[in-house]
Amino acid sequence: MAEQERPLVESFELDHTKVKAPYVRLIDEEQGPNGDVISNYDLRLVQPNENAIPTAGLHTIEHTIAVLLRERIPGYIDCSPFGCRTGFHLLTWGRHSTEEVAKALKESLEFIADKASWDDVPGTEITSCGNYRDHSLFSAKQWCRDIVDAGISSDPWERKVV
Ligand SMILES: [Zn+2]
Predict the structure, then answer these.
(1) What integer best gives the mean pLDDT of the chain?
(2) Predicted TM-score of the model (pTM)
(3) Which domains, ranges and CATH numbers included, belong to the chain?
(4) Does 129 carry a binding-site annotation?
(5) Which residues of this UniProt protein bind Fe cation (predicted)?
(6) Scanning 2, 21, 56, 137, which has the fewest C-beta atoms within 10 Å of its C-beta?
(7) How remote is the CA of residue 80 from the centroid of ligand 1, in Å?
């Protein structure tokens, strides 16, 4: 396939040195043939190329926010970690402001930092997870505390902390 025909991936066009994490950014909205809208968000928890959440903590955050964000965001579809371990993609049906998403994320990370016990982390058995040995609630709590204390912005370039 010729270079100019390769699909453009928006996330790889973003200048990762210009953003100010933690933030929520709308990546794009896609409309299906029946008019349904799916929104894709960049939930950036730590500063790219300066920090990365270790896999065990990130994995535990992933399992726990799958429930917490689903409870708080109507039309929640999925939330999956970036391979660079600096945050997550969030997919939802319909449109939500980045303020709404940032508030739901803040509440969820606050819950993990302050209240979550092992019982709040779903899917940690050999039958329900692909790498059940690689979890750390201790790490998840520490990272969530630091992220909440840094403040989650509804804008990636200008600090608009919710
Ligand atoms: Zn898992």
Answers:
(1) 95
(2) 0.93
(3) 19-150 (3.30.1360.80)
(4) yes
(5) 59, 63, 129
(6) 2
(7) 11
